[in-house]
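Case study 2.
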Amino acid sequence: MEIKRTVTILLPKDPDLLATVKAFQQVQQVLSQPCYNRGKPLGAIGLQRRCYDLVKGKLSAQMTISAIRIVAGAYKSAKCERKPVTEPFNFQRASALFLVGQRGRDADFRADGTLSIWTVGGRKRLNYQVPEAFQPILSNALEIDSLTVFERNGKLLGRMRVTLEVPAPKGIHPVGVDVNETNTLVAVDADERELFISGQRLNVKTRQTHKTRSRLLQKLAARKAEKKDTRSIRRLLKRLGRKERNRARTFCQQVAKQLVDWAKPNSVLVFEDLKMPKVSKKLRVARGVRHRLAQWQHYLIRQSVTNKAQERGMAIEYVNPRYTSHNCSKCGLRGNRKSHRFECPHCGHQDHADKNAAVNIRTRYTVLRAAGDSNTQAQLVLKASAKRSQSGESWSVDSEALEKSEGKPATVTPGVPPLG
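Prediction:
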């Protein structure tokens, strides 16, 4: 099984390489206006036929085609995301794409540890540095597909897109994973081992950043009213936003690493298929809830766990989130949840609410797998998600089999492979 990963490297600030990055950005800016085509964006082939003669000569032929595909892809992505394009895009961030290996001859990583790369000043040999965290990935890479060069914080960086070979996931041991706000992640496996990861420290820093941003926004509004210079405040706001995003991304990657290190080999990590509504001002929620939902990194956590699980040969599955937090993990009947405490009035079971939800998630997947159904819960969720995204309606999955299984005791059999 092959997967794609990104490796960041540090490049020297060569003037010809910097000029190449700037030339690539200029070509993108020139192509943006004709690609817009009065609100009817052109495809890559149409844009190439119309504008190739206009931009050729500034870059190599292969890099010119890459710039054409990137510009056309940006408009196509906006169309797929249903975002109306009202004006031509402005490519403000300077970056250049160099194809490597079988895909192209723009750059080549030599055996002596140097980089042979095309620039506007001719072919060059440059030294590069690989951070220690990315060295294992690069050493196991089957192929290097491309290199994207850009400048950030005064440094010239490169992002290598590499292909890795990993073991195919077997998905034998089910692990229920509950993701929420206070306890970022709670996992329970078939042996009743527990993993609690708290996000309290991240939440405290996020609240502090939010208060600082609020003060800066008030100061920005006052300066705008007085018609004074606001560049320093805007720089501070951008810096705070960048730090907050990097902090959240790093935390999610650390959570993912803890989970895959804790789980057994050949595990299947089962999540809820949560589809959170877009947090907008039109959404009627209590005061402060909108900000909390916006700061909840549930999607980024699942994405980080998926990337780590692929490298370890673990499977990822999703189940219907219906009543996982309210049903009792022992008898299956409806219980009472108060904050982090769960009590069942029927069987007297008491447990941590997040652990109870994680057990329900694991049991729900195990019941469907042991039932011998041709469609696993993951396939049902995918069909329901596609139907919901097209119609815009609420959950529409036919969960008749799931309703029959609720309330029935289920035994976890780690040796049973997943269906499908």
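The chain has eleven helices and 15 strands.
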